[in-house]
């Protein structure tokens, strides 16, 4: 073989090797993005499951309180409305907003309970309150895990060179679970009404 043929074959071989390496890198990056995105989706689902668990516990808690505090109708309506919004939420932001409203209504309900000492000592109420507290802890953990997964995913889709693969295949930024505006405010309860 001539020297020029060997040179051409070497150049072609190097180019083929570079294409194979680039293709392998692209596949690996794509698969990593898919795995990270699935993690975000899994944790979002965990939040929804925990919110549903809490939502399922609330009617029992409300019925128990109603037996003692039937005149507190507004709070019962607020809880029902917030549960409906949570059930109808279609994305993380709507879930966060509805969750905030439900948490606020539950806080007001638990403050009302302070006016009914016999309710506070009721075994059903105590058991429901314990389950609700455990569920609130689960929700907090699920939110934290979701936000950590969203951060990892968002970082991957923004970093070069994986950002090229992310933009080619339409990997969009994941929303963080954030408390809605005013969620940090202490709910006001008027026992004089």
List keywords for this structure.
mainly alpha; coiled coil; MamQ_LemA; about 190 residues; LemA-like_dom_sf; de novo design (two linked rop proteins)
Structure characterization notes:
It contains 6 helices and no strands. It starts with a helix and ends in a 25-residue tail after the last helix. It has helices at 3-68, 73-88, 92-113, 117-120, 123-158, 162-168. It has 193 residues and is mostly helical. The protein is rod-shaped. The protein has a domain at 45-168: LemA-like domain (de novo design (two linked rop proteins), Up-down Bundle). 78% of the residues lie in helices and 0% in strands. It holds the Pfam family LemA. Residues 125-152 form a coiled coil. It is found in: Membrane. Belongs to the LemA family. This is LemA family protein.
TL;DR of this structure?
The C terminus is likely disordered. With 193 residues, the chain is an all-alpha fold.
Overall 3D shape: rod-shaped
Order of H and E elements: HHHHHH
C-alpha termini separation: 101 Å
Mean pLDDT comes to: 84
Largest sheet: none
CATH superfamily of the domain at 45-168: LemA-like domain
């Amino acid at each position: 073989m001539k020297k020029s043929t060997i040179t051409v074959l070497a150049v072609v071989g190097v180019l083929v090797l570079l294409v194979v390496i680039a293709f392998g890198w692209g596949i690996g990056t794509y698969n990593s993005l898919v795995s990270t995105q699935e993690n975000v989706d899994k944790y979002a689902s965990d939040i929804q499951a925990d919110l549903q668990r809490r939502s399922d516990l609330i009617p029992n808690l409300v019925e128990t309180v109603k037996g003692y505090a039937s005149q507190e109708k507004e709070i019962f309506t607020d809880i029902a409305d917030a549960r409906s919004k949570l059930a109808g939420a279609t994305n993380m932001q709507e879930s966060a907003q509805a969750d905030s409203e439900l948490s606020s209504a539950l806080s007001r309900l638990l403050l009302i309970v302070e006016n009914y000492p016999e309710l506070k000592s009721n075994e059903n109420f105590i058991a429901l309150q314990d389950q609700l507290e455990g569920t609130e802890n689960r929700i907090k953990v699920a939110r934290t895990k979701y936000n950590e997964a969203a951060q990892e995913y968002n970082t991957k889709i923004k970093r070069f060179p994986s950002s090229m693969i992310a933009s080619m295949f339409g990997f969009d930024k994941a929303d963080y679970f954030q408390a809605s505006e005013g969620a940090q405010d202490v709910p006001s309860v008027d026992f004089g009404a």
